[in-house]
Amino acid sequence: NNNNDNDNTVPTIITDAQNRIFLLATTTLMASFSVYLVSLILGVLHATCAFCFASAGCSIALATLTWAGGALPSSDEIAAGDATALVEWRKKGVALSASSVGAATAVALGLFLGADDPDNRDFSFPSSSSSSSSSSSGSTLLASAASSSHPKNNNVKNTPPPITTTSTPQALSLAADLSSLDSKMYGAFWCSHCYDQKQSLGSEAMRAIPYVECDRDGYRTQRDLCRAKDVPGYPTWEIGGELFPGERSVDELREIVDGVLAKRK
Q1: Which of 47, 48, 111, 132 is spaced 20 to 30 A from 35 at the CA atom?
Q2: For 27, what's the count of Cα atoms within 13 Å in the CB-facing half-sphere?
């Protein structure tokens, strides 16, 4: 009977080891890729994404629990079961985990290299005030082509939609100060958040602020300038020689401008 029990236990141990090693490799891949994505967000895009950070934290926590919880077959299990098979599965667990890190590294490297070209950054930044909400926090890095609800400029190919709003006195005052600081707005003709940014300021204010087209296919593109400035995404403001990524409200832009002006006094 004892021999029969041992014969039944060994396959169960092997199956359990296989499942745990699969879990180990999966959580290791998730954690590694999450670390690289967070590095991309902070180091290359210079953006924030609460949902992304929370997701990365969960992935890292799962991987830590899996490794610390003994997902790899232990020496006690090896002694109690089929030692040869369990040792082999232990080696496979380490190899699969290392492969997971390698795969995550390869994908992340591709993202880092792709981010060096502004034309490959097919994303736009939402309003910094709205990104704190759960509905939009995950959209910071998502592609955002010009919405079909936006008016089209059919006269010239690949131009941004025309601005249809009228500037408020606050926006006009802000535009004057932005102009005095040699400010620019970097964007792409297809970027819906760039259009929303312009709409928030109004047509009169935007006439005083240079708009720089970064897409290679855009009308009067200044792609080389965008690359030289290392523009992280669209829209991005250059104010006083410093880049401020993301769609900003008039109040937020006023706060930035006042801070730059205060430094120059």
Answers
A1: 132
A2: 23
